[in-house]
Design goal:
about 375 residues, alpha+beta, 5-stranded mixed sheet, 4-stranded mixed sheet, 14 helices, globular
């Protein structure tokens, strides 16, 4: 889920999740190292160069505004090339992407809402980013993984939506969390299309003016807070299935590169920090730890596929990532009796100290994970 509400910022700060995850603060300002400088403000988005050579492009982002922001590189049709979310006021972030020649937009989104403030840039030259056979294999294997996740999700969603359409509250509750696992594992790819995520995974307070609220969370609220499924909810069930069927059909055509895999892994940790650790994502069902685990699994899958490449370039980084993934996996296992199941402790039963421990583990992983894309492209 992309939108971040002010309440989330407050909650993230309260559990000390914001500092590392939102900015991954850099000591260097990026000047002189070939990075494109992006300075984001509350009403501005300044880009140091409007002409950028094709290949591996690095953005050095600084948020000079008072609001949490995010920065995107967008195709002309609105699809996402790369992004970095949750960049806190006064912090910096770096993101590496593989970009072909063409016209793109760089967008800064103060408050992480709306279309953002956009600058058109030209990526010039016919030089493509260098790809090794190992990189090509990682991309091919990841493409197989995301397609499999979408394929396996549809039958689980059908169980959920059929229960909703039948008015069977208990059956729908039972099917809800498991229907979301494949989506949560591959969310950055799903979000890259731009138009599917708002239909299926937005929270009510993340909606734009005039946007209809549909999807999983609309039904989550009906099931757990309202305790009833009326005609409107029953009609929304087949729409959710249809929208996710669209995702399943399109996911095989997604733009996937080694750097998008690495950046996507970091985005999944950002999702954990700003939604799952805070309890905002599943505020009615309290199934946050199911999403949490799925996000981590998706990030870990990207990492494992890229590890043979990254380990040659930065063995210390992969050693750190191995350690921090293992630590977070072990910590999550505390909240389920069966390590093969997704029957986790309801998040409203997880106390403040335990949430802080989870937050710290996410931070410890997010910091080295933010360096994965650069290690892959060395």
């Amino acid at each position: 889920m992309r939108a971040l509400r002010p309440s989330v910022v407050t909650a993230v700060a309260a559990v000390a999740a914001l500092t590392v995850v939102t900015g991954c603060a850099e000591k260097s300002d990026g000047k002189g190292d070939g990075a494109v400088q992006v300075v984001a403000g509350d009403s501005s988005c300044e880009v140091s160069s409007k002409k950028i050579p094709a290949g591996h492009v690095e953005l050095a982002v600084k948020n000079k505004g008072s609001k949490v922001t995010e920065v995107y590189v967008l195709f002309p049709d609105g699809r996402i090339v790369t992004e970095r979310e949750n960049i806190g006021p006064g912090t910096k972030a770096r993101v590496t992407a593989e970009i072909k020649a063409g016209t793109y937009e760089i967008a800064c989104k103060p408050g992480m809402k709306g279309k953002g403030i956009r600058q058109t840039v030209e990526v010039t030259g016919g030089k493509a980013a260098a790809r090794s056979p190992e990189m090509d294999k990682a991309v091919a294997d990841y493409r197989t993984y995301v397609q499999a996740q979408a394929d396996e999700t549809l039958p689980k969603v059908k169980v959920f939506t059929d229960a909703v359409a039948a008015g069977d509250i208990e059956a729908a509750k039972k099917a809800y969390a498991v229907s979301r696992i494949g989506w949560e594992r591959t969310e950055p790819v799903a979000e890259s299309f731009g138009d599917i995520d708002p239909k299926v995974d937005f929270r009510e307070d993340g909606l734009e003016d005039g946007q209809e609220w549909t999807g999983w969370h609309r039904l989550e609220k009906a099931l757990w807070q309202d305790g009833k499924l009326g005609a409107e909810e029953k009609a929304l069930a087949p729409r959710l299935y249809k929208d996710l069927e669209d995702w399943q059909k399109r996911v095989g055509r997604a733009e996937i590169t080694p750097t998008s895999m690495a950046n996507g892994a970091k985005e999944l940790l950002d999702e954990v920090a700003t939604g799952k650790v805070t309890g905002e994502e599943e505020r009615y069902s309290h199934t946050d730890l199911v999403d949490f685990k799925a996000n981590v699994e998706g990030a870990e899958r990207s990492y494992e596929l890229l590890k043979p490449i990254a380990s040659k370039n930065d063995a210390a980084l992969t050693a750190s990532l191995d350690k921090q993934f293992a630590a977070l996996d072990t910590l999550l296992d505390k909240y389920r009796a069966d390590k093969t199941s997704y029957d986790f402790t309801p998040y409203d039963k997880v106390g403040a100290a335990d949430r802080k421990e989870l937050s710290d583990a996410v931070n410890a992983l997010a910091e080295p994970l933010s360096k994965l894309a650069a290690a892959v492209t060395k």
